[in-house]
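Margin note from the TA: students keep mixing up input and output lines. Inputs are the sequences; the output is the structure of the whole complex. Example:
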Amino acid sequence: MITIQSGFWRGVLFRLLAAALAVGTVSDGRSSRVAYAQGATDPTVIKARAAINRGQYVDAEALLKPIAVRAPDGEAALELGLFYEMMGRRDESRPLLQRLSNIQAGPRTSASEYARLGRAARALGEFQLANDAYRIATEKAPDDPAVHTGWGELFLQVHNNSEAAKSFQDALRADDKWIPALLGMAQALLDVNPPGATKAVQQALALDPDVVAGYLLMAQIHLDKSDREAAKAAVATAKAINPVSLDALALNGAVAYIEDRQSDFQQETAAALKINPRFSDVYRVAGDLAAANYRFEEAVALSRKALALDANDARTLGALGVQLLRTGDEAEARTVLERAFARDKFNQTTFNLLTMLDSLEKFETITEGNIVVKMHSSEMPVMREYVLPLAQRALATFSEKYQFTPRGPILIEMFPKHDDFAVRTVGLPGMIGALGACFGRVVTLDSPKARPPGDFNWAPTLWHELAHVMTLQLSKQRVPRWLTEGISTYEEKLGSPAWGREGELTFVMAYGRREHMSVRELNAAFQDPEKISLAYYEASILTEHIVETYGIAALRKLLVTYGEGLEGEAALKAGLGVDIDKLQADFDKVLAGKYSAVVRALSPPKELEPGKGNPEAIAAAFPESFQAQVALGEFLWKAGRTDEAFKVLERAAQMVPMATGPKSPHSMMAQMALQRNDRARAIGELEKVLQQANTDLDSARLLAKHLQDTGAAPARLMTAYERIAQLDPFDAGNHSLLGRLKMQAGDARTAAREFRAAIASGSLDPASAHADLAESYLALGDKAQARRAILAAIEVAPGYPRAQDLLLKVVGQ
Amino acid sequence: MIVLRALVLMIVGAAGFATSALAEERFAIIVSGVSGSEKFAERQRGWVSTLETTLRKGFGFAAGHITVLSESGTATTSATRENVTRRLATLKPRLTADDTLLVVLIGHGTFDGTAAKFNLVGPDIDSKEWKTALDGNPARLVFVNTTSSSFQFVPALAAKNRIIIAATDSAAQKYATLFPQYFIEALEQVAKADNDKNGRLSVWEAFTYAGQAVKQAFDQKGTLVTERSIIDDGSNGVLAKTTFFDPPPAATSANAVLAGLEKRRIGIETEIEQLKGRKGQMPAGQYEEEFERLAIELAKISAQIRSGK
């Protein structure tokens, strides 16, 4: 489960059936046009391919074999070789393909012969040779869509989707009805442009409604959208055309597996293995789909079964490596990924993961109970003081609340480079808006150094992800996205008063425009980049409503219900005892009660255009408009009518209490107060700003400064320092100040933690920091630690009287 | 922050340099160059004012020994080429080998690939011209160029008995610097910057404090560090560590016992520095044991000295 900061990141996490088009499946050619469009010229080969498409494998072999014997360098030989490959009959396929790939090319070698060479070489894994062959083939036949398509399919196999898309585009430029090119284009677009992929498949199926590969691609697209019913329907159509399609059997089995229909899974598996006893995809595809559904341990088991059938399959090895990383087994993941990379050096994801694992070697590890924390050695000395205690507190809180002890070890990895986090999480850099992720027992997140201070707060991110640990495990990894994100965001809000509020105003504004989601739509919204941010917040309010209405026990029961295999509305009914319509109706009332007044206040009058009109007149005409009041407040402030501005902005703040940013009422009032040197008022306003703006480091620093200068009560100052420490844990000076306050308050334990953090983060005054630490240890009665800290102070500053006195005190002289 | 030339691990004890602290007369020339905008002008005015006050009140520089040349100065106090060279020239005959001259440049600097300049009101003076103006000065020179593109001043001015500090360590660092803010803060808040807690601020400590504070400020903004300060004192830091902004402490007590204790204190401090220098070459346990023994002895003697017994 991924925590999104803002906006979205594109890309699908998991990919199934990476090369479904390995064999050029075609229909039986209802029209001559479509038959031609499959790239063959020999009518017998066309007929054989049509037979393969329909699963008439014996017929296909009977058609191809005599021709292949007569012309071992021809089309039929290639087709037969590929057919044997598909059937797992490598002893028969390899001689055919090797002969084709070893042809003596010369000036008279035709484009078709080069294309056959390329296709054979690709099947044999000789990708450079294949690439050379296709390059020459396309030079010789620049308008041949089959040649361009073959090259595109090679690019797909070596994970170069952008080059693949260019080749398919070239093919479609030559013939816009070239079905293999349309299907290839769909594959190339799956991750980056699902609607484009859908359109391409639909075009292919419109041209030939019997192309099995088209339905399988469509099924894949549906599965990416979590629309399992549509996927099943597409696979069923494919099977109706070819009941023994290996890819269809694999996909059907995979869907059965994740629906816990074990006998169906076994039936499909057995059917596929009967056709091709080495067809490891029956397990690989199921493993991929299990992983896509967060069932990583099952995915690992399935991938291992796939490897038992084909130990050298790079796709399975790569997938297993990723799955092992998600279960926390980094040692075996590395071994497996190295094996994968040795067999497929084109796989960027595998390369990225291995590089990331290299960088993990510079990390340090701390283990406490069932929590393992890994951080970069430059961050560990500071962050260890905070991460482990917070993780322990979170898990203890959730365990008690949900009456569940999660299985460990729970691995937490924090990355100072965001791209390392992204690679650890999805195998590729990027994921700009993502802050953290959870796979059940593995949590990954950006460390504070991954982003500028004040850009995010690592603590609520970790809290959020650890809530996922509970919900994923309690539901046996079957919790739907809306619920796990809803609970995590809800728990974030409970974790600390300022946490988890960032999305509220955006949600309220969307709610006002009726752009929020119904309960039925909520889960799908997590896959829509336009809606995902709203979905997080809405899911948290729905969770809050469930807890308040049905109780935490019911929420727990709902999670367990999902774990028992129930889904969708049935799970809601069984878990909460309520149908979705009733839940929706109640939720509508909750939203209306909570936000209607704010929505009204946020509906801007048409007359309010920035810089236009008389703000006083507009505000008088629209007294219930937040924007009108804020505009008036700003106008009065700039006009020097500060007292009036305060009154107007105070009211505006009440109208939309969750408003944040420099133009929010509290922020403006803080600035106004500072301008007229009313520090008490400024402090009050800054405290209100920080109640909503969790990551506003500048306001926190400003607040601390004014609290310090005015000699404010230690408790208020402490709160400000604590916020700074969370947002910028490497601010050594702040740690020292906080530590001293903690000492004054008699909390020597926390003081010691802060002084250690001050030293570890590079205090500008290390001698004092060590002396501070020594005093806190003395207060805790730990003379040995105190002695070490004093000697450290003296090592920096031998003549430091404070440290010298402490030393004499400790040694009793 | 970079130290030109490798730092030696073992430094000579402070006692060895007791006479080379800012001795006798201390002079300062603060040059606040052209600001370029009101925002920078205001900032420079603040820094200059704080620095001047701190030198005078905090470190006891005689008011007449501090020269401030600024953008808004009068005909004789304006930060012009003529006033700078004239002031240096008139000061030169007054200086002796026991004196110290502190020169601080605040404002903007440039480097065109050939010459590094400090931007004055009117024509600038490049680093070579600064060298000419400063050559022949018998006093110890502490020259602090706090501006952007100040790096070239270090090799240009480096010489025996000189401590040259620049806010930047390469020509590429051409953005407005934070260094002056923290360098002046070090002088203003001695307790924070007095790293060895001996109650005195050395040039090295001010330089170190400012460099670390600059780095921390960049870290807190989450931006790339665009300035790294640099120092060259011709002695791997020893001269900078033993040159202080404040006057040397009063002569050793006439009380023979106290004088003996003071001598012993200095001796132990030297032993500690020597032990620290050998830290990497001896077993950790042995080092800790030896260090603790010396630390306890030093603490006892210091306590006796403080109590006057």
